[in-house]
DNA sequence: TTTTATTGATTGATGCGTCAATAAAAAATA
DNA sequence: TATTTTTTATTGACGCATCAATCAATAAAA
């Protein structure tokens, strides 16, 4: 059976299995055997490629993060105006790929785990910082600096909050209404600023 | 040593110990021994009073929830106007007692745990519902029904989001600025509505 | 023959939940 | 009031299950 060049395929399969396992269990205490089983390999192989369980979890987190960043930069590339840049960032966060039960459960679980693990916390800080600066890349051209910072904070908080409510499967059932909520806030703040000018 | 009437004292001490243990560890996987140790008793006693670990966690969650509800009703009682009612609900959520690292870590951990445990999920649904209707108790008198619902959703999401960001100890360092963010949103929406009228 | 892929079996640790044992208070009985 | 009995409080020790991590063994490529 052993065919060479399996490593990248197995790594990817194990990471995918980790996300779906976390999504189904709803928490990070999934076993290595559970994950490995989903990926169709033995738990020993998972250890072979990733070392400790925490390393696999960190790799999964990094994967989630880099997917989000990739999608975001792609969306930003085609955004023509500052206003469109802000909407692009928002829509990526609520895209089908991101705003899915398994993905959200994984994010939530990682937030909790980050309390313990400094490595994970660093990764989440990076995420928060990127989200902020991506939002600012549009807002800074629409509002005075201080207001832009303020609106970026509030928008980021709203996005995180909507993720949580989605995890609870209560209120805000779909991505469209979540986007509408955030966009409405933005529109309100922008028109308020325009009036003041 | 055995003195009669220990039960309520022990129960309370164990629940407090659970919160602080979760706060320090940052997650729900604290051991019964750890909790019992903090409460100054053996793990066997914790089992004696609460049964399974999950029961202790559920009791802790219920305690957190009922404290929040008690504080909220107290704050609502002294609120004179509809506008004051909304502010009252917000300020309770960011009060010293609620917006504390240990409490927030516990809430976050419970959100994750709720994915697995239907009992906990029910409790969190109750919390979300109460928060919503408490906000509505003021908003319904300030805005048309549909707008009020919308603003209540957004406010609730913002509150949850700010909790998460607090848990990460990143951005929004203190309660005051968190309140300012939410109040600013509210004020903006209310004045927008007033102008439209 | 060396490297890469893979696993079953095993080990060691951890932690929940139980149980029998101890002791002090309260209640019942003499 | 003195005693026995029952109830309440409490724990150390232990069984049992789970799981992460290791390792020796197998087999196909290079």
From TrEMBL, chains A, B:
<keyword id="KW-0804">Transcription</keyword>
<feature type="DNA-binding region" description="H-T-H motif">
    <location>
        <begin position="31"/>
        <end position="50"/>
    </location>
</feature>
<dbReference type="InterPro" id="IPR036271">
    <property type="entry name" value="Tet_transcr_reg_TetR-rel_C_sf"/>
</dbReference>
<comment type="function">
    <text>Repressor involved in choline regulation of the bet genes.</text>
</comment>
<dbReference type="Pfam" id="PF13977">
    <property type="entry name" value="TetR_C_6"/>
</dbReference>
<dbReference type="InterPro" id="IPR001647">
    <property type="entry name" value="HTH_TetR"/>
</dbReference>
<dbReference type="Pfam" id="PF00440">
    <property type="entry name" value="TetR_N"/>
</dbReference>
<dbReference type="InterPro" id="IPR009057">
    <property type="entry name" value="Homeodomain-like_sf"/>
</dbReference>
<keyword id="KW-0805">Transcription regulation</keyword>
<dbReference type="InterPro" id="IPR017757">
    <property type="entry name" value="Tscrpt_rep_BetI"/>
</dbReference>
<comment type="pathway">
    <text>Amine and polyamine biosynthesis; betaine biosynthesis via choline pathway [regulation].</text>
</comment>
<comment type="function">
    <text>Repressor involved in the biosynthesis of the osmoprotectant glycine betaine. It represses transcription of the choline transporter BetT and the genes of BetAB involved in the synthesis of glycine betaine.</text>
</comment>
<protein>
    <recommendedName>
        <fullName>HTH-type transcriptional regulator BetI</fullName>
    </recommendedName>
</protein>
<dbReference type="InterPro" id="IPR050109">
    <property type="entry name" value="HTH-type_TetR-like_transc_reg"/>
</dbReference>
<feature type="domain" description="HTH tetR-type">
    <location>
        <begin position="8"/>
        <end position="68"/>
    </location>
</feature>
<keyword id="KW-0238">DNA-binding</keyword>
<dbReference type="InterPro" id="IPR039538">
    <property type="entry name" value="BetI_C"/>
</dbReference>
<dbReference type="InterPro" id="IPR023772">
    <property type="entry name" value="DNA-bd_HTH_TetR-type_CS"/>
</dbReference>
<keyword id="KW-0678">Repressor</keyword>
């Amino acid at each position: 059976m052993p065919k060479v060049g399996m490593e990248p395929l197995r790594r990817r399969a194990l990471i995918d299995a980790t996300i779906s396992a976390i999504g189904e269990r709803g928490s990070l205490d999934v076993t290595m055997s559970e994950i490995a089983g989903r990926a169709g390999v033995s738990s020993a192989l998972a250890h072979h490629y990733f070392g400790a369980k925490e390393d696999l979890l960190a790799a999964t987190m990094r994967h989630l993060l880099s997917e989000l960043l990739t999608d975001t930069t792609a969306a930003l590339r085609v955004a023509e105006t500052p206003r469109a840049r802000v909407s692009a960032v928002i829509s990526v966060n609520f895209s089908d790929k991101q705003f899915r039960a398994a993905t959200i459960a994984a994010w939530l679980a990682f937030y909790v785990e980050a309390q313990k693990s400094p490595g994970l916390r660093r990764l989440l800080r990076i995420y928060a910082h990127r989200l902020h600066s991506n939002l600012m890349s549009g807002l800074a051209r629409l509002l005075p600096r201080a207001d832009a910072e303020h609106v970026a904070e509030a928008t980021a908080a709203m996005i995180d909050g909507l993720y949580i409510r989605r995890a609870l499967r209560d209120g805000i059932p779909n991505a469209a209404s979540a986007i509408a909520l955030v966009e409405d806030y933005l529109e309100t703040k922008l028109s308020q600023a325009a009036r003041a000018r």
